[in-house]
UniProtKB/TrEMBL annotation:
Physiological role: Part of the tripartite ATP-independent periplasmic (TRAP) transport system.
Membrane-crossing residue ranges in chain numbering: 56-75, 95-123, 135-158, 170-192, 238-256, 268-289, 309-326, 333-350, 356-381, 393-413
Keywords: Cell inner membrane, Cell membrane, Membrane, Transmembrane, Transmembrane helix, Transport
Name of the protein: TRAP transporter large permease protein
Length: 418
């Protein structure tokens, strides 16, 4: 009964549109008062203990690295390479947009940053080439969602933090599901533009694009290769990525100036200043919930209503799809990750596989109103009407739901590389 009241408290505060920090602090205080000894000063101690982890350093480092590469010319150079390679394909620009989003996502780790960086280049290019506005818009807005499943992904790092799951395993697990989504989306782009004339391969353009963009193209290889080979940890990889980005943009591309760098650092610091209090409180809540066995009580509660893993999977996917429509991905992970993961384990789901399922669900939430973050940002970035935006992403929502079903039903896609 106490667990139900805790869930009701969280939902009530969400309905009242309270800040996430307030919601989490209220939840922690409730747990301390109901299951603990009423010592609310333990909250501060728990927050300090929660933040005292080396892995958390990777979050601001990846954020700053992605911001530097976005402010520079990495996105434009990568898009030029992919565009030259996909030119002979029908719907080649659409394919280029999706693949460019996937590649740039491995640099920025952010859905919104990926959408803006790639969309600002390829959205006008597709319109100029005769693609419909709805297809061009839907492709760049939806392609940006690949940023939260393709490693290194900030949401994957946050899920690993709050559930104490290996970040390296989560990064590995994101590769094949990411490929499934890329194949499905590119397949639709080719089919939707099957009447578009294909262009001839311009080998001269490809050589120039590779020569000018090779350093940006090597970025994911250096970053992910070091992690997966075990040569350095995710935190060390974030530091390596940041140094590499600085060297490329300052000394190779020479597009970064001290003034731009100062602005990038300032904006990243603001983002970190908003994110880190949430992480501290969420991790503190995780400690409290574990100490007082709240997840175990949630397992008993859910087990009384749902008696088999398939039914649980259906219910949890519907729940997460609904949550993704009303909450941002980071908020949903920080609140629900530590509560739902033990329940999923009780039904036989691997923590890594469940993490990927959760991320893909929330990825779809980037495209669903009323709080679809990609829709909100695209509304301003591409200056389109909201109903046009929603209609443009509907085919991709269907594709992502199909991908979610495949990824949920075939655990090997998430666990095969571990």
């Amino acid at each position: 009964m106490s667990a139900i009241l805790l869930l009701g408290l969280v939902l009530a505060l969400l309905v009242l549109r309270q800040p996430l920090t307030v919601i989490l602090l209220a939840a922690i205080a409730y747990v301390h008062m109901v299951w603990g000894h009423g010592y609310l000063d333990y909250i501060v101690e728990d927050m300090w203990t929660s933040l005292n982890k080396e892995l958390i350093l990777s979050v601001p480092l990846f954020l700053l690295c992605g911001a530097i590469m976005t402010e520079g010319t990495a996105a434009r150079r990568l898009v030029r390479i992919v565009r030259a390679m996909t030119a002979p394909t029908r719907g080649g620009l659409g394919v280029a947009a999706i693949i460019s989003c996937a590649v740039f996502a491995a640099i920025s780790g952010s859905s919104i940053v990926t959408m803006i960086a790639v969309g600002s280049v390829l959205y006008p290019a597709m319109k100029e080439a005769g693609y419909t506005n709805r297809f061009a818009l839907g492709t760049v807005v939806s392609g940006g969602t690949l940023g939260i499943i393709i490693p290194p992904s900030i949401p994957l790092i946050l899920y690993g933090l709050v559930t104490e799951t290996s970040i390296v395993d989560l990064f590995l697990a994101g590769i094949m599901p990411g490929m499934v989504l890329i194949v499905l989306m590119t397949g639709y782009a080719i089919w939707a533009n099957r009447h578009q004339p294909a262009q001839k391969m311009d080998w001269g353009e490809l050589r120039i694009a590779l020569r000018e963009g090779i350093w940006a193209a090597l970025f994911p290889v250096i970053l992910l290769g070091g992690i997966y080979s075990g040569y350095y940890s995710p935190t060390e990889s974030a530091a390596v990525a940041l140094v590499y980005a600085l060297v490329i943009e300052f000394f190779v591309h020479r597009e970064m100036t001290l003034k731009k760098y100062f602005n990038v650092v300032t904006e990243t610091a603001k983002l970190g200043g908003a994110l880190f209090p949430l992480i501290a409180v969420a991790l503190s809540l995780n400690l409290v919930l574990t100490e007082y066995r709240v997840p175990a009580q949630m397992v008993d509660l859910v087990s009384a209503w749902i008696d088999n893993p398939i039914a649980f999977l259906v219910v949890i996917n519907l729940l997460l799809l609904a949550v993704g429509a009303f909450m941002t991905t980071n908020e949903a992970i920080l609140i629900l990750g530590p509560i739902l993961m033990p329940v999923a384990q009780a039904y036989g789901f691997h923590p890594v596989h469940f993490g990927i399922i959760m991320i893909v669900n929330l990825e779809i939430g980037y495209l669903t109103p009323p709080v679809g973050m990609n829709l909100m940002v695209a509304l301003v970035t591409f200056k389109q009407k909201f109903n046009e935006l929603v209609m443009s992403v509907l085919p991709y929502i269907a594709i992502l739901v199909l991908g979610l079903i495949i990824i949920s039903a075939i655990p090997w896609l998430s666990l095969g590389l571990l």
